[in-house]
Specification:
7-stranded mixed sheet, mainly beta
Length: 124
């Protein structure tokens, strides 16, 4: 059975940092491109970042470029998102997703597997 389980979310003050994790199981993690997508209340899903299968290539939305870093550990079947200098507009439910291509989209139907999400709230 396939599982993508996000963790590491929480409440943080503006300017703070969080590290999100996504634990994958039930599929060949190293064979999939991995993506972070976020969705704020009342808004559509927003693509955040994608990493290639071996972690060589990464891409970021302009809104997070220079503040967020995506990484993966294929030996541990783990995906990470280091988020620094957080802003209130980063508040959202963050999902990890597995795709068969290097997708740059927040559209859920493009991805093979999708997690349940972890909440990030940036507020003073």
């Amino acid at each position: 059975q396939v599982h993508l389980v996000e963790s590491g979310g929480g409440l943080v003050q503006p300017g703070g940092s969080l590290r999100l994790s996504c634990a994958a199981s039930g599929f060949t993690f190293s064979g999939y491109y991995m993506t972070w997508v976020r969705q704020a209340p009342g808004k559509g899903p927003e693509w955040v970042s994608t990493i290639s299968t071996r972690g060589i290539s990464t891409s970021y939305a302009d809104s997070v470029k220079g503040r967020f870093t995506v990484s993966r550990d294929n030996d541990k079947n783990m995906l990470y998102l280091q988020m620094n200098t957080l802003k209130p507009e980063d508040s959202a439910l963050y999902y990890c997703a597995a795709g068969t291509r290097y997708f740059i989209t927040g559209s859920r139907d493009q991805y093979t597997y999708w997690g349940q999400g972890t909440q990030v709230t940036v507020s003073s």
